[in-house]
Design brief:
The complex is a heterodimer. By secondary structure, chain A is α+β, with helices and mostly antiparallel strands. Chain A contains eight helices and 20 strands. The longest helix of chain A is centred in the middle third of the chain and has 18 residues, at 166-183. By secondary structure, chain B is mainly alpha-helical. Classes of the chains: A alpha+beta, B mainly alpha. The interface between A and B is medium-sized, with 26 and 17 residues. The complex binds adenosine-5'-diphosphate (ADP) and magnesium ion.
């Protein structure tokens, strides 16, 4: 197990810069996820750590060792691929034992270790089967067992659950987490699914167009997104166009949509136009005319209501703005189309972002 | 109901007749040759159906046919083996290596298929004359000379079948092996080669068949010591009709079917021929 550091790493394909001077530190034993839309450079980052791609600038470190120019077969990594990449002509035992055999481990020791690993991924007894005889979820477990067999200094997974259906994906998330914790393996995980990222990770690096937009815990990303892109990509959020016009201690005052707002810890924002971002579930519906003491308020009218079991999603028309989405409990009596309401939210449940 | 069934029956009959005609067309010449080979009489022409059943011509097969058959078999095996090794290397370089001008190289490797074989034969003859004039290496009429030319004409088949299957091998398999600590050579040995092996076998089988049946190239390069079986047969037919050739052909036919059966049985011909060998 090692820590992994990318220091100013740039990754190019020909003239195209897929990764632009990335800095990233992954602590020993940490589960870090690269999250971002397709094409943002997640796989490229993983391939740089693995050594399949050499950076055109910058350095890759495992602990304090510079491995920038070390070929992938000598980096002691474990990789799990989206399409499993199990060797079709080998038995499960030979697949799982592949890395051990390449490292010169003896036959008996390999057999013992393979049994142990298949127990770990809860697939005992499949040693003599072939990959084609297993289901998708089972293959993914074998791929995981194979990747952690030697054991690696860092485990790299590129959308490993992308080919599985939703139920199985959720079950496998739990499995991956359990195995990663059991072995305490430094892990870099790639996904474009924010729920998956939040379920699994110690920290998440949100990527966009070859850069890391924000690196933080799931909670921090959700509550304190630093850019519009992060706010939008991680969960649902409303943006209200406002202008910062004053400060009150650590808080900022802003006006927009004919209303005055207060944003906790917004004093770092310069005066001028920006976006007030607030999550749908932070908005409360209250009857029109309710006094707004100690929180932000905005008047509007419900134009659409969608019931989805555990919650109700209302579309609220506000003066001069785009529709605001509100999520409330399924039994909220105010949640009917046509009702004039007042939206209320706490000062510390919203944040100010650049309108980029 | 009858109104609907009749056209379908009719349609089936037409298909059956077509298939039957196809097989007759395909196998009739073979049946004639095999049948005529069992006619013991002395004729200056082919006698089918045979009048006097006899194995007489089988006993009169000249020894040189067996000698040249042995040469042809050796040549076929050498050509298939060399083309197999060289073809795999070339296909790998074309598909996986980042070579500049890979497209041009691929076209070059296909060239032997596009040059008329007779031209290839003539070209090799000239080349070998030059070689022997320059360095005193006597390639014309030697086994080595024949082998070199046969590798040249059979190489495209191995490259074709191997490249076709290589394109379908998932590149992440190789990356998985490398990530697990395998060197390039070990990755090839344990992952790539097993995956492309059916294509290599298919290509080598084609190479053997092409080499074994070749007349135009071998005709130029064969000498008195090394003549291939089809060339010998060609000359045998040219002078006068010898029914022993029918007998010999029948033996070859039996041998071929036995070989196909063996390949089918032990390697699986369908998987071999299903590897995109034609492309
Ligand atoms: N082999 C390649 N050659 C050229 N461009 C590539 C190659 N691989 C990826 N790219 C480009 O680099 C960018 C990042 O790709 P990638 O890291 O695969 O994204 P992600 O995994 O986040 O979907 C994309 O714009 C993609 O088109
Ligand atoms: Mg990717």
């Amino acid at each position: 197990m090692s820590s992994v550091t990318l220091a100013g790493v740039t990754g190019r394909y020909g003239d195209f810069t897929a990764l632009d001077a990335i800095d990233l530190e992954i602590a020993e034993g940490e589960f870090l996820t690269l999250l971002g839309p397709s094409g943002c450079g997640k796989t490229t980052t993983l391939r740089l750590v693995a050594g399949f791609l050499e950076p055109s600038r910058g350095r890759v470190l495992f602990d304090d060792e510079d491995v920038t120019h070390r070929p992938p077969n000598r980096r002691q990594i474990g990789m799990v691929f989206q399409d499993y990449a199990l060797f079709p002509h080998m038995t499960i035992a030979d697949n799982v034992g592949f890395g051990l055999r390449e490292r010169g481990v003896g036959k008996a020791a390999i057999r013992r270790r393979v049994d142990e690993l298949l127990d770990l991924v809860r697939l005992p007894g499949v040693q003599q089967r072939y990959p084609a005889q297993l289901s998708g979820g089972q293959r993914q477990r074998v791929a995981l067992a194979r990747a952690v067999a030697h054991p690696p200094r860092v485990l790299l997974m590129d959308e490993p659950l992308g080919a599985l259906d939703l139920k199985l994906r959720e079950a496998m998330q739990t499995e991956i987490q359990r195995i990663q914790r059991t072995l305490a393996i430094t892990t870099v995980y790639v996904t474009h699914d924010q729920t998956e990222a939040m379920n699994l990770s110690d920290r998440i690096a949100v990527m966009n167009q070859g850069r890391i937009e924000q690196l933080a815990t799931a909670r921090e990303l959700y509550l304190k997104p630093r850019t519009r892109f992060v706010a939008d990509f991680v969960g649902k959020i409303n943006f209200l166009p406002v202008t910062v016009d004053g400060y009150a201690g650590p808080d900022a005052h802003a006006v927009g949509l004919g209303t005055a707002f207060r944003v906790a810890d917004g004093a770092g924002r310069p005066r001028g136009p920006c976006l007030l971002a607030v999550r749908p579930e932070q908005l409360r519906l209250s009857p029109a005319g309710t006094p707004a003491d100690g929180c932000n308020a905005l008047d509007g009218r419900i134009v659409d209501v969608r019931y989805s079991g555990n919650l109700v999603r209302c579309e609220v028309e506000v003066a001069g703005g785009t529709p605001v989405i509100v999520e409330t409990g399924p039994d909220d009596p105010l949640a009917t189309a046509g009702t004039a309401i007042r939206l209320a939210w706490a000062y510390d449940r919203c944040t100010l972002l650049d309108d980029d | 109901m009858n109104g609907r069934r009749l056209p379908r029956l009719l349609w089936r009959a037409v298909v059956a007749a077509f298939v039957a005609a196809f097989y007759v067309f395909l196998f009739a010449p073979l049946v004639v040759v095999v049948g005529a080979s069992f006619d013991g009489g002395e004729h200056a022409f082919l006698n089918f159906p045979p009048r006097h059943l006899s194995l007489a011509w089988y006993l009169k097969i000249p020894g040189r046919y067996f000698e040249t058959l042995w040469v042809s078999l050796q040549l076929g095996v050498v050509a298939a083996a060399c083309s197999g090794v060289l073809g795999v290397m070339a296909a790998l370089a074309l598909a996986r290596g980042r070579l500049p001008g890979a497209g041009l190289m691929a076209a070059l490797f296909r060239a032997p298929l596009q040059i008329p074989v007779i031209v290839t034969g003539f070209a090799f003859l000239q080349l070998f004359y030059l070689a022997s004039a320059a360095g005193g290496v006597p390639l014309v009429g030697s086994f080595a000379g024949l082998a070199i030319a046969h590798v040249f004409i059979t190489l495209p088949y191995v490259i074709g079948t191997t490249a076709a299957i290589l394109q379908r091998v998932n590149p992440s398999l190789e990356e998985a092996a490398i990530s697990l600590g395998a060197t390039r050579w070990r990755t090839f040995r344990r992952v790539t080669l097993p995956a492309i092996l059916p294509g290599v076998y298919a290509g080598a089988l084609y190479a053997f068949i092409v080499s074994f049946g070749d007349v135009p190239v071998s005709m130029f390069l064969a000498g008195s010591r090394y003549t291939t079986f089809p060339v010998e047969m060609f000359y045998g037919m040219e002078l006068n009709f010898d029914p022993a050739i029918l007998a010999m052909s029948t033996l070859i036919l039996v041998g071929s079917f036995a070989a196909i059966w063996a390949v089918q049985r032990f390697l699986g011909l369908n998987t071999l021929l299903g590897t995109g060998a034609g492309s």
